[in-house]
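Postdoc handover notes: sequence design on the structure in folder B. Input tokens:
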């Protein structure tokens, strides 16, 4: 496991601790192997900021990009005893055909003290688009539960703005008008017009593949939060990508157990509900989900991936001051995940018959 060392003036570190909600970056130095980089450092996340093991956001300053990235995230994965569910999920999405941030586990030190095992994640931004040779275009994050593709909040109140729940990561403010157009179409067009026009602004099959991924991994927040939208500037079509997937594979974001049938086969948001009205879109979804259940979301496929991840993590558990898991606990969690896959797979196959 690669070692990341951050060196920071204690006064700057105290500044972060004095106001854990501050998003302003403070200067620091990141050393990886024999290379050193000047960086800006801040805490990131929401609930995690209150925990002892915090997550970090890093922006490279000199040089401005490293391995094609200007910004990376170091996630504590504090509520996931395996530290692996997020990576297992994002790799799963990549394997079923949905572009997702790449990730790897690292060992983090700050001013010589080991802070434990962290998951380094790519930032979904314009630099990632360039790295993957995709046309530049607006990137919009779903940053709270109002990002449900509806004109109403989850509390059934009329939204003050159609872009409520979203934050522009890359692009200009006017680019939000295209998102507002997607939401307007979803909520106001007749069935005939919606079926005809939606493929012009949304990559429907890619969206349905993403939906299959959220449904399989059972991310409770994934349908109205924990995603980003990217609009290809050449085609004008939106694609969707996942992020923050630690509350998956049988546990929620707090680490509590979730029954295998907690999330329905179509999830829940207004856009999905609209798409499922049409027989062709429903058939496309069932075909995608059926293939996923037969090939990727299986005990055989995922057991191998879990083993590789656990073999990476377990030898370093004793170095993480915040982790109390043992190899025996990891084995128990592996069995829990495998049991979840088996039960969830069977449940979704059963529900797919009803859906068709």
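Designed sequence:
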């Amino acid at each position: 496991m690669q070692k990341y060392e951050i060196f920071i003036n204690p006064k700057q570190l105290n500044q972060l601790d004095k106001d854990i909600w501050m998003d302003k970056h403070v200067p620091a130095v990141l050393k990886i192997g024999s290379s050193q980089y000047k960086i800006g450092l801040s805490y990131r996340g929401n609930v995690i900021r209150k925990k002892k093991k915090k997550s970090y956001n890093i922006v490279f300053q000199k040089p401005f990009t490293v391995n094609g990235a200007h910004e990376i995230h170091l996630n504590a994965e504090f509520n996931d005893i395996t530290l692996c569910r997020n990576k297992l999920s994002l790799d799963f999405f990549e394997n079923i055909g949905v572009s997702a941030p790449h990730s790897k586990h690292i060992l983090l030190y700050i001013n010589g003290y080991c802070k434990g095992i962290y998951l380094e994640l790519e930032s979904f931004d314009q630099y990632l688009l360039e790295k993957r040779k995709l046309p530049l275009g607006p990137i919009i994050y779903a940053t709270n539960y109002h990002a449900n593709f509806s004109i109403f909040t989850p509390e059934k109140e009329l939204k003050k703005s159609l872009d409520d729940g979203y934050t522009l990561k890359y692009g200009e403010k006017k680019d939000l008008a295209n998102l507002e157009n997607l939401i307007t179409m979803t909520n106001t067009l007749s069935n005939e017009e919606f079926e005809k026009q939606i493929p012009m602004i949304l990559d429907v099959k890619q969206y349905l593949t993403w939906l299959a991924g959220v449904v399989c991994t059972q991310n409770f927040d994934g349908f109205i939060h924990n995603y980003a939208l990217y609009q290809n500037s050449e085609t004008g079509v939106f694609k969707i990508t996942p992020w923050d997937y630690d509350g998956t594979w049988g546990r929620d974001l707090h680490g509590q157990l979730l029954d295998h049938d907690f999330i329905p086969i179509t999830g829940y948001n207004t856009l999905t509900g609209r798409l499922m009205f049409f027989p062709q879109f429903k058939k496309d979804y069932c075909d995608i989900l059926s293939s996923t259940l037969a090939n990727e979301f299986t005990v055989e496929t995922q057991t191998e991936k879990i083993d590789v991840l656990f073999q990476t993590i377990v030898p370093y558990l004793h170095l993480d001051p915040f982790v109390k898991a043992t190899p025996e606990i990891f084995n128990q969690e592996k069995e829990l995940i495998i049991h979840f896959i088996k039960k969830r797979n069977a449940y979704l196959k059963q529900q797919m018959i009803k859906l068709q």
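Context for whoever picks this up: The mean pLDDT is 95. Don't rerun without checking with the PI first.
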